[in-house]
Structures are given as structure tokens and as C-alpha cells.
């Protein structure tokens, strides 16, 4: 019984693997933050791609290579 208590206290006091746990928590926080930012900016990305797509679709290029691209409002 005494031996298992000593082993348990030695295990609790040991810092082996603590750095790994820190990196896992830090990596998880970075991923969660990235997903949060993506959720926030997703609607504006869709709007921007629609504007660019419409501008490209309505652009006119003549035979000399000159183009008239409408304003991206």
C-alpha cells in the first residue's frame, strides 16, 4: 500500500508530458479561433465572390484586347 502511494505521488509530481498537453490545448485553441473567424467572415466572402463573378460575367473584351470592366461597387 505504501509503495503505491509513493508511486502515485511520484506520478503526480512528474512533469513529463506536460509540454505535450500544453501544445494540444494551444493547438485546439488556435483551431477554434480560426473556425470562429471563418464563421464571422463567411457571409462577406460569399458577397465578394458574387460581385467579382458578376463583374467578370459582364466584362466586354473587343478584338484589340481592350476590355471594359464595370466598377465593383
How would you sum up this structure in a few lines?
By secondary structure, the chain is mainly alpha-helical. It contains two helices and two strands, in the order ααββ.
Structure notes:
This is Pilus assembly protein. Keywords: Membrane, Transmembrane, Transmembrane helix. The chain crosses the membrane at residues 21-41. The chain is mainly alpha-helical and 73 residues long. 73% of the residues lie in helices and 5% in strands. 0% of the residues are buried.
Comma- or semicolon-separated keywords:
single chain, 73 residues, mainly alpha, two-stranded antiparallel ribbon, 73% helix
How many distinct beta strands? 2
Low-confidence stretches: none
Strand content: 5-15%
Q: Percentage of helical residues?
A: over 70%
The SS-based structural class is: mainly alpha
- Average pLDDT, rounded to a whole number, is 81
How many alpha or pi helices? 2
| Number of domain units | 1
Which value, in Å, is the CA radius of gyration?
Answer: 29 Å
End-to-end distance, in Å?
Answer: 77 Å
The helix-strand sequence is HHEE
Q: Specify the overall morphology.
A: rod-shaped
Oligomer: single chain
- Strands ordered across the widest β-sheet: 1-2
Largest pleated sheet? 2 strands, antiparallel
Keywords: Membrane, Transmembrane, Transmembrane helix
Transmembrane segments: 21-41
Protein name: Pilus assembly protein
SSE layout:
Layout: H1 2-13, H2 18-58, E1 60-61, E2 67-68
Antiparallel strand pairs: 1-2
Keywords: Membrane, Transmembrane, Transmembrane helix
Protein name: Pilus assembly protein
Organism: Pontivivens marinum
Amino acid at each position: 500500500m505504501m509503495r503505491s502511494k509513493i508511486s502515485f505521488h511520484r506520478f503526480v509530481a512528474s512533469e513529463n508530458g506536460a509540454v505535450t498537453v500544453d501544445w494540444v490545448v494551444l493547438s485546439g485553441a488556435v483551431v477554434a479561433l480560426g473556425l470562429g473567424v471563418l464563421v464571422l467572415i463567411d457571409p462577406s466572402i460569399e458577397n465578394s465572390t458574387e460581385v467579382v463573378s458578376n463583374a467578370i460575367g459582364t466584362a466586354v473584351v473587343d478584338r484589340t484586347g481592350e476590355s471594359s470592366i464595370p466598377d465593383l461597387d
